[in-house]
C-alpha cells in the first residue's frame, strides 16, 4: 500500500491571506521620475559649456565645489556626529601633493588629482585612529591641532616653497589631458578651455560624491553610523546596529577626507597656487 501526495493549487484568496502584511520598497514612482529628471539635468549641465559664458562656467564650478563639500560635511557632522574644524588639512596636503606632482614629477594635472587624493587617504588612515579616540568638542579641538601641526610641517619644506607656498605656471597647465580636444571641440582659447575641463571634472566629482553618499547611507554601515551618532552606547551593545554590522568605529573622515581633497583639487587648477596660510581668492583669468 502506498500513499501519494497530490499538490492542490491554492486559491487566489488563500494566497492573499498567506502573504505578509508588510512590504519593503526601495523605490517609488516619484523616485524613479526624480532619477530620470536627474539624469536629464546632468546631461544638460554637461552640454552647458557649448552655450554658456566663461563667467557662468566659473560660477558653476564654485557651486559644484560647495555642493560637494557641503554633502561631505553633512556626512561628518550630520550622520556621524563628528564636528571637525581640521578638514583643511586634507585640502592643504592634497594641494601640495598635486603641485609637487606637477612641478617636480612632471605629472599631468588631471592624472595628479587621484594620486593626491590617495595621499590624503593615507594621511587620513594614520590620523583617523588617533582622532577617533576623542569625542565631542575634544574631537573638534584635536582635528584643529592636527591641521595646524601639518601646516607647520609643510612650511618646513623648502622644495614646497616654505612659508610662502608654491604655484603652477600657465605653461604646465597648458599640457592637461583633453585640453586640446576641448579647444578643438568648442573653439576656445587655452584658458577658457581649461575652465571647461575643470567644470566637467567638478560636475563628475559632484555626481560621484552624491551617488556614493546615497549608496553609503542605504547600506548597513550607513545605518550603523547613524545609530552610533544617536546613541553610541546602545549602538555598541551586543545587539546594537553598530555591533551587528561591524561598524563600531566611526569612519566617515577616513573616506570623506580624500573625496574632500579630490573635489577641491579640481578647483585648485583654476587657482594655481598653494601656501600654508591659504590660497588667494581671486581666480586666474589668463
Key terms:
286 residues, mainly alpha, 13 helices, flat
Order of helices and strands: HHHHHHEHHHHHHHE
Distance between the termini: 97 Å
Average pLDDT level? 76
Biggest sheet, in brief?
A: 2 strands, antiparallel
The total count of helices amounts to 13
Globally, the shape reads flat
Contiguous low-pLDDT stretches (5 residues minimum) are 238-251, 280-286
Strand order of the largest sheet: 1-2
**Range of strand content:** under 5%
The computed structural class is mainly alpha
Radius of gyration, in Å, reads 25 Å
Topology:
Blueprint: H1 12-18, H2 29-47, H3 54-79, H4 88-103, H5 109-131, H6 137-154, E1 166-167, H7 170-173, H8 179-186, H9 190-217, H10 220-230, H11 232-235, H12 241-244, H13 252-268, E2 273-274
Antiparallel strand pairs: 1-2
What does this structure look like?
Helix 4 runs antiparallel to helix 5 and helix 5 runs antiparallel to helix 13. The protein contains 13 helices and two strands. It has a two-stranded antiparallel ribbon with strand order 1-2. With 286 residues, the protein is an all-alpha fold. The C terminus is likely disordered.
